[in-house]
Write a structure and sequence with these properties.
It contains 17 helices and no strands. The protein starts with 5 loop residues before the first helix and ends with a helix.
């Protein structure tokens, strides 16, 4: 990528942030619309889980493929293709006649989304080469998550109450088209000097692992954990995982380069991403159903209730980026772990939903924790890797996020569905059914705290530096052997 002027670099960052905005908005707006969609489409809790997990599941399965493909054929080209497919998928979702069609069209959205965020992060990494500038840029990038969380509930509530749930997908159309035109005009093309070759077997194993595991978790409450169908999909997931661990290390250029996990910070960032986004997925899912189906709020007022959480994330996320640039990832990760765990504890131990002040306290704590966690995850994932593999490294970090959110919705939704099954009144049974879910969210926060403390010290940073040097050397040797 050619050297760009400071003004051009800022413009590239803004264009990349537009892609994160529409993907983030799509998530928070959809959560606000879930109860309305559930009533109009006549579906169950598991049906609502699939409207979310069909999207995050496909994203998690294809992100690494998109990252490596962008490194190989051109990041700008793949990014533009992603904008086109995502915008088309959004249009189709707005026209879906039933739940099955909506889930299918959400997968099309996800195919486009898989080409956006990891590729945009790779573009940012290669545009901002100075470590401090890159950390600040990633902080701005992370702040867009807060913007989408802040705007999503309000915009979604307004649209659902005034126009209907289908309109929540319309907002992606003008933003997607504008980002496409700006990318074509201002973002330069870039490729990795020595990109990896395709790995179709590895890709199929990833799809089999994530798909079968998610299906088993979501459908188990209705089918039974010991049913032949659920046991079969659990066996497929185990076989796919075994296949990845055996097959991938034998490839010269694997889809998942297990050497990345030699880096202690990179491994820690992966675990933290899964834990934090599992907490986010479960938190949004449970709260949306609670506010509308138990408290009886309409979509707009339910969205307004969640604004304190989103507003704190909006304010804190860029501050976390600056903190990472000046002090490293450790302070942000420790704050994130403590506050996310405390938020879950407010609901699990003190029944925060029973009191509006406690409810808002839990929301603010969670917004603070989530705002702090995103920037150190991204910065740690890409800073310890060779720049030539920035697309793959960023894709692994993004895959961890989507995998976490997929599992969070699947596991917590299954726990909630199991608690509500056979219970009396929905509203009366909901608080007790949700209690185990809040303990799971508390555990996710504790995992962020423990892994953040263990993987962000001086020794961990030295491990990342040595791993990056070895990967750079091994990549050069492989390239020389191929040439």
């Amino acid at each position: 990528m050619p050297d760009l002027s400071p003004r051009r670099r800022i413009l590239v960052l803004a264009i990349c942030c537009m892609s994160l905005l529409i993907v983030g908005l799509d998530n928070t707006i959809l959560n606000v619309a879930l109860p309305t969609m559930q009533r109009e489409l006549h579906t169950t809790v598991s049906g609502m889980q699939w409207t979310i997990d069909a999207y995050t599941l496909v994203l998690a399965s294809l992100l690494m493929l998109a990252g490596s493909t962008a490194d190989r054929i051109g990041r700008r080209r793949v990014f533009m293709a992603g904008l086109i497919v995502f915008t088309l998928g959004s249009l189709l979702c707005s026209l879906a006649p039933n739940l099955s069609s909506l889930v299918a069209f959400r997968t099309i959205q996800a195919v486009g989304g898989s080409m956006l965020n990891p590729v945009a992060m790779s573009i940012i990494t290669n545009t901002f080469t100075d470590p401090r500038e890159r950390a600040r840029a990633i902080g701005v990038w992370s702040g867009v998550v807060g913007i989408s969380m802040a705007a999503g509930p309000i915009v979604g509530g307004l649209l659902v109450d005034s126009v209907g749930w289908r309109s929540i997908f319309w907002i992606n159309l003008p933003v997607g088209l504008a980002a496409l035109l700006l990318t074509w005009r201002y973002v330069p093309e870039s490729r990795a000097p020595k990109p990896r070759r395709p790995d179709p077997v590895g890709q199929l194993l990833v799809v089999a692992l994530l798909g079968s595991l998610t299906y088993a978790i979501i459908e188990a409450p209705s089918a039974g954990w010991t049913s032949a169908r659920i046991l079969f999909f659990c066996a497929v997931a185990l076989a796919a995982l075994t296949g990845l661990l055996v097959y991938e290390p034998r490839r010269r250029e694997p889809l998942i380069d297990l050497r990345f996990f030699r880096s202690v910070p990179f491994s820690g960032a992966t675990v933290i991403a899964v834990s934090a986004f599992a907490a986010l997925g479960g938190f949004l899912f449970v709260n949306t159903l609670y506010l509308q189906n138990v408290r009886g709020l309409d979509a707009l007022h339910a969205g307004l209730y969640m604004v304190p959480m989103a507003a704190v994330t909006l304010v804190v996320a860029p501050l976390s980026g600056r903190l990472v640039a000046s002090r490293g990832p450790r302070p942000s990760l420790l704050i994130a772990g403590v506050t996310m765990a405390a938020s879950g504890l407010v609901f699990a131990a003190f029944r925060g939903e029973s009191s509006t002040p406690l409810l808002f306290t839990g929301y603010v704590l969670f917004g603070l924790g989530f705002g702090m966690v995103n920037s150190p995850i991204t910065n740690t994932a890409v800073s310890g890797m060779p720049r030539a593999q920035a697309g793959v490294a960023a894709a692994v970090a993004s895959t961890s996020r989507q995998t976490g959110q997929t599992l969070g919705v699947a596991v917590i939704g299954a726990v909630l569905a199991g608690g509500l099954s056979g219970a009396g009144g929905y509203a009366a049974a909901f608080p007790d059914a949700a209690r185990p879910a809040w303990w799971i969210i508390t555990g996710c926060g504790l995992a962020v705290l423990v892994m953040g403390a263990a993987t962000s010290g001086r020794r961990a940073r030295e491990s990342a530096r040595r791993t990056a040097e070895r990967l750079e050397t091994e990549t050069e040797v492989v390239g020389a052997g191929v040439s």
